[in-house]
Every structure is written in C-alpha cells, then in structure tokens.
C-alpha cells in the first residue's frame, strides 16, 4: 500500500489491528475514520501530537481535532 512520509502504510484498516488495544476493541475501529485511526496508532507508538503532525503533513490543530474526536 501507500506509505506516509513516516513509513506507515495508509489506506488499510487492518494495519491498525496490530495494536492490542484496537485488536481487542474492534468496536472502537468501526466508529473512527481512517485518519483518526492512524492518529491513534501513532499515539499508541508513543508519538506526540507535533510529531504526528510532521509525519502526516497536517497541522497540529488537525491532529488535536482527530484526538478529540476519539474521545
């Protein structure tokens, strides 16, 4: 699949299920967009919002919006 500048595959929801939290809670995955799931994946890897912003080529505000939508 396609890769983001950070080397993460994009466009495939199965990548997010590699993380135990998301694998054990599929109900979380089905209610989130691909962009929100990608941000969650990066958060689970320990990345900060500014780091995620740079990796995805999005503003920090956009990343914060995705994080807020998850909660």
List descriptors.
6% strand; 2 strands; 71 residues; two-stranded antiparallel ribbon; mainly alpha
Descriptive report:
The chain is built from five helices and two strands. A two-stranded antiparallel sheet has the order 1-2. With 71 residues, it is mostly helical. The N and C termini lie far apart (28 Å).
Question: What is the strand and helix layout of this fold?
Answer:
Elements: E1 2-3, E2 9-10, H1 20-24, H2 26-30, H3 34-44, H4 49-56, H5 60-70
Antiparallel strand pairs: 1-2
Gist of the model:
The chain is mainly α and 71 residues long. It contains 5 helices and 2 strands.
Within the largest sheet, what's the order of strands? 1-2
The shape is: globular
Report the span from N to C terminus: 28 Å
Can you count the beta strands?
2
């Amino acid at each position: 699949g396609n890769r983001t500048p950070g080397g993460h595959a994009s466009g495939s929801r199965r990548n997010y299920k590699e993380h135990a939290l998301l694998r054990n809670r599929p109900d979380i995955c089905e209610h989130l967009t691909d962009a929100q799931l990608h941000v969650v994946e990066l958060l689970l890897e320990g990345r900060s919002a500014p780091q995620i912003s740079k990796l995805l080529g999005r503003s920090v505000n956009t990343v914060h919006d995705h994080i807020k939508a998850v909660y």
